[in-house]
Amino acid sequence: MPPIQLLSPRLANQIAAGEVVERPASVVKELVENALDAGADRVDVEIEQGGVKLIRVRDDGSGIEEQDLPLALSRHATSKIVSLDDLEAVASLGFRGEALASISSVSRLTLTSRTAAQEAASRVEVEGRDMDARISPAAHPVGTTVEVRDLFFNTPARRKFLRTEKTEFNHVEECVRRQALSRFDAGFTLRHNQRVVQSLRPAESPLDKERRIGALCGQQFIDNAVLIDAEATGLRLWGWVALPTFSRSQADLQYFFVNGRVIRDRLVAHAVRQAYRDVLYNNRHPAFVLYLEVDPATVDVNVHPTKHEVRFRDGRLVHDFIFRTLHKALADVRPDDHLRGAVAQSFGRENAQASPGVAGHPDPSTQAWSGQPTGFQAAPSPGQGMPQGSGQGYPYSGQSFSQAHSQGQSNPQPQQEWHASDQMAFYNSLNAGGGVESGSSAAPVGGSEAIPTPPMDGDAEPPLGYAIAQLHGIYILAQGRAGMIVVDMHAAHERITYERMKRALAEQDLKSQPLLVPLSMAVSQKEAALTETHGDDLRQLGLQIERIGPETLAVRQVPALLRGADSEQLVRDVLADLIEHGQSDRVEAVTHELLGTMACHGSVRANRQLTIPEMNSLLRDMEATERSGQCNHGRPTWTLVTLSELDKLFLRGR
Fold this sequence. Notes:
alpha+beta; eight-stranded mixed β-sheet; five-stranded mixed β-sheet; 22 helices; 22 strands; 35% helix; globular
């Protein structure tokens, strides 16, 4: 073995650069964070050739004194912390004081800065070869500009691992996007090869913040997102979570910030997945931009070289708070929230003229065929038995769909059938008296009595509108103020039944059932010890587990509802969750899976003919049920076809 010796400062900095400077985006991250820590209101980032040739970051922050410029390029030199107490409650983005030293060791770096108290600015230059700082006067406004040229020029082995210019710039753009999402009070500009890619002004008002979110994450995200803001036990969680219908095929639209610092944390990811568990389809990922504010003393940010991970002092409290907040927010989503996003996507991007009718669509009163969707309900047959009510031809019987469904099973009422003679009679009514008159003098259709139509008043009409027909015994067609709504009646009733079964189970204590023969299973010593320390938690889950040996457990009781499940696999999964997250929702997940299967088999099936009152009862139940936008398998229960989309199909307005 060679003798132990101290490394040269240059080699030590280059080793540190291997952790801090992975690619050009890493340099941009460190420099932008320094600018924000200096109180900058404006940060300009200029990139050339993906950041390999030039990275320039300019800010209008507090600046650096001339005598501190050489020290700023030294390792472990910072103005952000002084003592151990400061390190234990870090409030700034940077604190280690090694970023500039690491960057300058693998590039040609120039730092120009001026404080408000100085009459002139100063510049310090350093190259990776010698690390000697050269100071000279310069012209510069109050603030700091850092130029990084020829990244990895003295470490060819590192440079050859860089990707193409486009790939490296995409990483830089993602880095700037994260910083812009973390600080709404600062403006950002990003240029690449002399071309402006992003220009964002400071966003102070809620509307400006939504505009920035839309510019960075896409307008579709903000149109389909729910704003949340919850506070409890010294924690505050606010931001935007996308509706389950806006799920992604990959986790590329997930941003989580802790005290303004973007992080990737397994605890947070687990809490979010758990909150979306009942409403996401297989292998889909939620989208969110969330901000968690906590006491800096309760979170350790010094656990990762690039500070992308944190450690919470009370991780279980944070996990439960995030889960319960998101779970409640998603449970409170109603059809109105889905409709806003769908209408905004359909109408908000078009330049059509708004009218007293639906936004972006002509006034229905000016169209000759505005009553078409409801005209075929003008003359129900006596056998239909439709009571008269406030629904103007689309009554709501007042009973829930489950009641109507159970009654319909014993005495099903066939849906009204229309024959050719019925249709001819309807068309003849339009031509009664010598034809259809145009203009304001047109008489009511069918003589003196108008054809009953759903109410057009937006305040009086329910979000899902009123049923008009059933399609192939599978789908319900409803007319709403935004267009035509198509409902999968089995999926919708399945969610309604599932939520009612969950509520009924929650109102009762989880009952346990003793096993006739206790189940003996071999585990590790760590898992066996866990059953003793978490004995109360396991009993709350309906599990009674006794340690009968150093690596042997005896399962004596299991939840009564899961008596037919694989008890050994259930216990192993619960213990794995306790090791990973400090808690387990495995029993609840398996229980809900069983309830979902029961709800699926107990819901209305395809080809079941429903009456108009039954359809309307189902729609009203959907509007009052949590998470009614998806069945318990994550499939959508309804969709909206807007009037604008229908117009496009028939080339109207062209």
